[in-house]
UniProtKB/TrEMBL annotation:
The keyword Protein transport applies. Keywords: 4Fe-4S, Cell membrane, Coiled coil, Iron, Iron-sulfur, Membrane, Metal-binding, Protein transport, Translocation, Transmembrane, Transmembrane helix, Transport. It is found in: Membrane. GO terms for cellular component: membrane. It comes from Halomonas daqiaonensis. It holds the Pfam family Fer4_10. InterPro entries: 4Fe4S_Fe-S-bd, 4Fe4S_Fe_S_CS, Fe-S_Ferredoxin, TatA/B/E, TatB. This is Twin arginine-targeting protein translocase TatB. It is a single-pass membrane protein.
Amino acid sequence: MFDISSWELVVVGLVALVVTGPERLPRVVRTLGLWTGKIKAACVSLHKEFEREALAGNIQEMRQELEQVSHDVERSVLDVVDIDRDYRRIDPVGRTTPTAHKPTPDAPRQDGVAMRQAPLSHTILTRVAPGQGAVDKVVYQSDGVVALIGDRGPSLLAMAETFSQGTIIAIAPGLDDEQTPVGWTAFDARVTGIEGWLGDFRLESVMTDSNTPRQVTADIVIDLSKTPTLGQQVSPPGYLQGRSSPSPSTLAAEARELVGSFEKPRYFRYTPEICAHEIAGQTGCTRCLDVCAADAIRSEGTLIHVEPHLCQGCSACTLACPTGALSVAQPRRLDLLERMHTLIDALDTPPSTLHVIAEGAPIDPDVGTSVEVSATLEVPVIANFGEELWFAALAHGVHRVVLWPEAGMPADTRQLLDRRLADVACITEAMGLGRGAVTFGGDRRDDTPDTATLRPGSREPLTVSRDSRKRELLNAALRRWQESQLPGSHETFELPAGSPIGGISVDPETCVMCSVCARSCPTASIRYGENTQTARLELAEANCIQCGLCERLCPEDAITLQPRLVSAERRYRWQPLNEAPLATCDACGSPHMPEPLLESMIGKLATTGAADIERQFRRCPACRHGQ
């Protein structure tokens, strides 16, 4: 770089002599030499910097490749362990031997995530040394400051001996500061709200005498109120309720155990690119917000935000999410699919029943004792195994899927599962297969699938790419199952309102072909196109998640949601919704917009009294601007 030959130096010197003259030449040469040296040094430094950056980039790529190889090896080993655990021992008459399903104190770990830790309780927390929390975990730091709250001050004072250790901040109406024991900080106030989690609680209160607001911070909250201040079904870590504990002394002991550094798994993954929460200021899908029992999800502009410190792994949000924008971190959806395929393929014939059992689920002792061939798959919580996997099991030849939920499953999660089961029941009943294709364990049903009516499912595992999302897996499973059970059928099965499966209808008398619906659809289910004569609106029903954005954004109220399952032939191709002729320019004759849209615009703008408005709009943009 910057190498100059002797002849080039001679030429440069002669030119400089002519230009500057003999008197100033030495000074110019000296200055030029100094600047040349500086530039050369800078270039050498820059060249070395480029080399360092390139080397760092290569090292980073090598590190990522090594981490991926390590990850793949670890997953392969763990998958072998999981598969070995999930194999069922089958005796000569086809009976299966069920395994015990009890929580274990030492949870096996996969990809840094505890797989068997029970959610929805303080047992999700693992004590760690200060500052040693893993990067992929959610960390809590508690110094043990307890906010003790109640309905009446005297009631709290009566428990002074029980709560005599550590730093106590007592808050209740009528609390006399002069009577509080040593070590207590007392406020005669009423708590109006609580936010936060273990190590970072913020309590809003109103002072009784002055009615002024006051905020208090604490690491742990012990709520002895008759009606708990927090009403969500799953309380944040560090929030202890008096009515859920046998005695105040038990609460005090629990609080003492919640001092130090703790971590828990990050239970979820969020892919904002496929979230259908909001478009153009209009709220679309809110299914995850509606079912989170821990109130860990909030709307944040066009997206949602999941607070990892509040999320406790019930997985209702991932079950509710129709696109897969929210998914379980471990076990991943495709991991469960592979484990299920392995279980089914290990049998000579597809199992009549697949039992999906959550950890610690109370199960019927008769499970696995019938003469039918069955298989058992374990999951951390039952919501991990959603409708896309139900249909994948049915498409693989399973006659019935039985779900055994964990003890203490939140009511919102149960209601969501009930709705999803109702969707499946509507389909199977209309197909003549009864309503019992997917049920909860323990339900005594007389309408189990009629094996004489069922056609044999495919023995080939459902093949999807490793980066497939929830909707792609659901569509692939549904298509295979529909084609195996109703080959060539053109039937349409109506589903309950709120189902994530369905399409839309467009009123051709009202629609003006403005294409707002196509531009706002978060899953690209609707498309608008034009040829030389016609504008056309079409729907890809397999992509429609029934979020309702198109219905709410349509300026003419021409769209209606249609929860349904149409035939595989219709569902996986573009269906016409509406079409209209294109209006031609009065000046040049070229088509420029749908006729209904043009007439609608002229009708609405004519009321403004603008002169010559109709003539202007009947021209194409080129002719209009060319005047």
